[in-house]
Amino acid sequence: MLKKVNYAKILGVPLIATGFLQINRTNNRQQIDLKGLKYIKEENKISQNDKFNILIGELNKMSTINSSGISKPKFELGLSREELEKRTHKDFLTTKKMLAVDAPEYLELSDGDKEALKHLTKAAARLDKVEMVLDDHNNLEFKEYLEKEIAKGNEEAKLTKILFDAQKGIFALDRDSNLIKLAKGLEPKKGIGVYPTDLSREEFHTILIKMIKEGKVNEVAKILNQRSIVERDGEELKATDYVDYFKEDFEYMAQELEKAAETSTNEDFNEYLKLQAKALRKADPMLDGYADKKWATLQDTPLEFTITRENYSDEMTESVVENAELKKLLDENKIVPVSKDCLGGRVGIVNKQGTDAILNVKKYLPLMAKNMPLNDKYVQNISADKESKQTMVDVDLVGVYGDVGEYRAGITLAENLPNDDKVSVSQLDGGRRNVYHRQIRLITSDDAREKMQKRLNAMLNPELHKYYNDEADHWFTVGHENGHSLGPKSGTEGLGKYKSIIEENKADMVSLAMLDVLTDAGMYTPEQREQIILTYAADNMMMAKPTLSQAHRVRSVMQNYYFIKEGAITISKDGILDVNMDKMVPTAQKMLKEIIEVQLSGDFSRGEKYVNDYFVWTEEMDTMAKNIKKVSKTLNGKVESPLADMLVKE
Q1: Hey, CA dihedral for 184, 140, 197, 408, is it positive or negative?
Q2: What's 558's DSSP letter?
Q3: Can you tell me the distance from the alpha carbon of 437 to that of 473, in angstroms, rounded to the nearest whole number?
Q4: Beta strand 432-437 with 390-401: parallel, antiparallel or unpaired?
Q5: Per-residue pLDDT at 384
């Protein structure tokens, strides 16, 4: 703490303060410490002129402080001891366990694949550090601060570190949609860690308009692409590709992937690893495209490794379509803004039995494509008359890192990648791949099943309990992930911050809308159809109204309100859900058609209206949420990865 000095007294009293300033520059931050502060008793030893010179000198030092900026020497913990103890208790912090050291899936691997798995895990683990940088400018420094405080015996820091490691960052929304801030005085930024912290949306738009008018179109295109860190450059902005910005980290990962390719037993998988290593070393989107295209063909491989790239968190880039002048300039210069990618890593062992069950849906994808509404007005990734470029695997997870491993209200259950904005899809005519996460979806303990039953008792008509089947949630998820490959393949960027909400809504409605088609075709039995409908409806109910930044949760509220208006579901004043089985699929088909129309429009204002019309939290929903919270205390979760931890240390 800097002690205040009363300089007025320097000229009139015998006590003055002296000291010296030391400026330390670390991590582009300037820290200023006032050291050697002492009081010197003056007994008529200094002339009035000398006193004046001392005053000027001290004021000059203060001027240096003001111009350099003062950084606090350390962070402050954001949660009280009581709150930390609550949030880290097992009743509030659920645990998902990845494969154990003695897991049969691991022990049955060949020696070569075991060795490869070690290097793959080391490569993926490095993405924790990378994603923390992308997520927030303060994450790494705060992590270091926590580790130092823990070494000093700070129990609050130890508890905070449990939450930090679980959510992999300072900020997270919990299941009650409350923002958890582990550091006091800090706020999350619209531009997360990929834009300057002091850059407002208005200044951002102004700078881009000026740069385009000055002919700096290529620079603006780099700023608005999905793979760059943006920094200030005088009065302008400049973009640095991820590969160049994270050069040391990506080189380490590339080396580990090449080591894995030396011992892995599957040649197709090894080819992919080598392509991915090349993409990590050179800032060329085409190299990522070749790696993604190969990855999307992998079907019969023992091991799973993925670098995921999805863009749900950056609210700065997508804001440009809301500025009419800027949007016009971008369109004229053929610049398509795409939100920045967050990066995640997944390592696992492919489960053959689970994969075979999931692959059963592949033969039905052309039928689903044929039954998509307005399918004559757009191109979709799945063709109605050709073999689908879609692979699918069920994976026993060894470790999840970065964006994939962030447990914030929820955690990733499955992914369909690459997304439409990636080169492999947009330019190389590549396919897509679904990866399902067994350890995250499976309910194996009696305690977990008891908690689920208590939840149903609190919010669902007892007569409908017989239809609930937790495995039906997995069937629905399979439909959801394939739903991302159906519908408009491009042109939705103009929806801006509503793009992800609408896309997630579409994927859900595809899964539900196709139930009758797939039941008639023999994929589902009539009983399974009813189980999927009821399980979807029950699982879609929430503990709190989400924020607009939670795309996956906003779409749930929209669907619930839409289905209530259509009479497909009702929620009583006591907060109890009832479901009209006959109306559910037709309602989903109606909503899906409306969603496709919004996506085809590519119009921001239309997307905004659509979301606002149905993102309505009713009194009945709130009553139900309170019912659920009485029996379900879980606010967040964490991941335990014993096998991965062992492999990283080898």
Answers
A1: negative
A2: H
A3: 13
A4: parallel
A5: 73
Residue 156 φ/ψ, nearest 5 degrees: -65, -40
3-state helix, strand, coil in the chain (%, to 5): 55, 15, 30
- Looking at the domain assignment, is residue 168 inside a domain? no
Find, among 358, 374, 357, 375, the residue nearest to 366 by Cα.
Answer: 375
Q: How far is CA 168 from CA 157, 347, 404, in A?
A: 15, 17, 10
Higher pLDDT among residues 16 and 261, named by residue:
261
pLDDT of residue 38: 33
- How many structural domains is the chain composed of? 1
How many C-alpha atoms does 24 have within 13 Å on its Cβ side?
A: 10
* Euclidean distance between CA atoms 402 and 347, whole angstroms: 12
* b/e 500-537 (16+ beta carbons within 10 angstroms → b): bbbbbbbbbbbbbbbbbbbbeeebbeeebbbbbbbbbb
- 237 within domain boundaries: no
For residue 122, being part of any structural domain is answered with no
- Backbone phi and psi for residue 106, each to the nearest 5 degrees, phi listed first: -80, -45
Q: What does DSSP say about strands 179-181 and 236-241: parallel, antiparallel, or unpaired? A: unpaired
- Give pLDDT, residue 48: 53
Angle, vertex CA 510, rays to CA 443 and CA 452, nearest 5: 20
Give pLDDT tens digits for 119-158.
Answer: 999 999 999 999 999 999 999 999 999 999 999 999 999 9
Q: Is the pLDDT of residue 64 over 80?
A: no
| Secondary structure (3-state) at 145 | helix
Residue type for 550, please? Q
Whole domain around residue 43: which residue ranges?
Answer: 7-68
Neighbours of 124 (CB within 10 A): 29
Please report the pLDDT score of residue 491 as a whole number.
85
Cα gap 207→205, rounded to integer Å: 6
What's the angle, vertex CA 150, arms to CA 147 and CA 153, rounded to 5?
Answer: 160
Whether 407 and 639 have beta carbons less than 8 Å apart is answered as yes
- Paired sense of beta strands 636-640 and 228-233, if any: unpaired
Q: Does 591 reside within a domain?
A: no
C-alpha distances out from residue 367 to 40, 430, 529, Å: 88, 20, 17
pLDDT score for 551 = 82
DSSP β-ladder status, 93-97 and 171-173: unpaired
pLDDT at 25 over 50: no
Pairwise CA distance, residues 345 & 520, whole Å: 38
Note the pTM of the prediction, 2 decimals. 0.84
For residues 172 and 403, is the Cβ–Cβ distance under 8 A? no
CA atoms of 139 and 134, how far apart (whole Å): 9
